[in-house]
Structure formats: C-alpha cells, structure tokens
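User: Structure please.
Assistant: Input sequence and predicted structure:
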Amino acid sequence: GGVYEIDVRREHAATLTATSSTDTSGLIVVRATIEGAGKHDLSLRAENLRITDAASATVDLRAQGREAVTWHASIIDPSTPWVAVVLKDGTISGHVELSGVGPASH
C-alpha cells in the first residue's frame, strides 16, 4: 500500500512527457512537454548534471493547451551515468525520469 495524491479537477488535468538529447556542444538538453489545462510548476532535479537554466518554470495552459520547457545541463563526471527527474507541481505523482551516460572515451 501507499499514499497517493490524485487531482481529478478538470481545470488541473495535465499530462507530462519528457525527452533528452545531446546538442552539438555536448550539453544534455531536457525537454518537458505538458498538455492539458491549468497552471503548473515544472521542475528538474538531477544527479551528475549541472543545470545551466533555472531549475523550475511555471506554465499556464489555460482551459486547454500545450507548453514545452527546455533545460540545458553539463555532465559533471562523464564516467558516471546521469539521472534527471521532471516533477509536475512539486509532487512525485506523474513525474518523468530520464537517464544517460557521458560520451564514450577511446
């Protein structure tokens, strides 16, 4: 068992997705997309990443909308995997986890 928090109010319903990629300069790019309704806070928590942007952002989807938030980060220790978690409204409910490794060394 556990404790779960579910917001079923239509004006707050939103779906969160996220992807990661590496840009040409070697930075990790995390892009979160939220679709639905209401005002939401998105935040990025990371291990082995140094985030270069503000760690959180507020989006207002109004009655029905879609917004994207992008973060850039550098890998602190390329020999260790990194982990990033995107949170919606400061809760673990509906979060998205991403992970990766640094560039291969030869």
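The CA atoms of residues 37 and 61 lie 5 Å apart.
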